[in-house]
Amino acid sequence: MASFRILVVVITHNGDHWIADCLGSLRKSIIPLDVIVIDNQSTDDTVATIKQNFPEVQLVESKRNLGFGQGNNVGMKKGLQENYDYVFLLNQDAWIDPDTVKILIETHQQYPEYGILNPMQVNRRETSLDRNFAGYLSQTNNISLMSDLLLPHLSLQKVYSMEFINAAAWFISRECLRTVGGFDPLFPHYGEDQDYVQRARYHRFKIGFTPHTKVIHDREGYVKQSDKRRSLATQYNRSLILLKNVRRAFSANLAVFLRNELYYILVALATLDIDQFVTKLKLFYRVFRRLSAIRINRKYCATHRGAFLT
Asked: To which H or E segment does residue 166 belong?
């Protein structure tokens, strides 16, 4: 295999529970990897563990919590500026097999139309697919994959196209990164990967996964937000994803947003659901307060190669 330069980007925040497994797996890769960790103000022993046990890792201790998207942008910019062939975004709660990167490189070299490749995501015990990953498979309705799995005379292909896979283990080609750029900072947390996939597909890159290697994605230990706060944040992110979709006209996206949200406001009024009514009003205020920025970012991402927004 030809020599390729790979930069792995890991964002940490209170990830001491996982970081030794994550970085330890990268150290064991049969393909040499450069690793940068951007720490978002961890208050546990994450930073100390990295400094003590992984001196080969470039550690950036951010003075503020950049979040997932802007944190990854630090590493993605480095990947472009220093001419890496691939940038591999890996969650702090995920780790790979020694041959994972080798298989991803081989797959992309054979199928260069894929801008983002993913290993299979499995749970910590390796007893099942990661629950979200399984959901993405079912949403894609990939008849080829189901046929290859269930019909004994068929065999698994090297790669399968997907509508979306979350950014827990994204293997991004340099060409995709040069064209699509980084994550949009309009997304405070969650949703930035869905927006990125929309932009990648707009620029005619495919998104896919290979069933011939895996990443363990361990979701234990997360602290969830309160239901009301999570509900508003989730609805806001979904609205941003809709409005920023560069694959359709902005006016069409806005019309869908208004139609859907006005319907739910009317339902809330009719059923006297005060909590839902207030949540929707807050959503309207939050979206329309940022509407100008949404339009500007959307246009910039569609017309500028390698857009890194601030």
From this structure: none
Helix runs in the chain, H state only: 19-27, 46-53, 67-81, 100-110, 131-140, 143-150, 174-180, 192-202, 227-243, 250-270, 274-289, 291-303
CA distance 300 to 294: 10
Query: How far is C-alpha 232 from the chain's CA centre?
Result: 21
Checking if the pLDDT of 221 tops 50, the result is no
Q: What is the pLDDT of residues 126-155, one digit of tens each?
A: 999 998 998 888 876 677 888 888 888 888
Site of tokens 């979200």 = 132
CB 13 within 8 A of CB 71: no
Nearest-10 Cα torsion for 218, 219, 220, 224 = 170
Q: Which two tokens stand for residue 274?
A: 């005060």
Cα separation, 259 vs 117, whole angstroms: 35
DSSP string, 184-204: -TT-SSSSHHHHHHHHHHHTT
Tokens coding 220: 């234990």
Structure tokens at 185: 């900072």
Cα 234 to Cα 90: distance, rounded to the nearest angstrom: 23
Is 265 within 8 Å of 277 (Cβ atoms)? Answer: yes
Pick from 2, 6, 1: which is nearest to 26 by CA?
Answer: 6
Other Cβ atoms less than 10 A from the Cβ of 299: the count is: 12
| Nearest to 252, CA basis, from 136, 21, 260 | 260
Residue 200 one-letter amino acid: A
- pTM of structure: 0.91
Distance CA 244, CA 234 (A): 15
* CA–CA gap between residue 168 and residue 183 (Å, rounded): 14
Dump pLDDT digits (tens) for 264-287: 999 999 999 999 899 999 999 999
Please give the backbone phi and psi of residue 307, each rounded to the nearest 5 degrees, phi first: -75, 120
| Helix ranges (DSSP H) in 151-226 | 174-180, 192-202
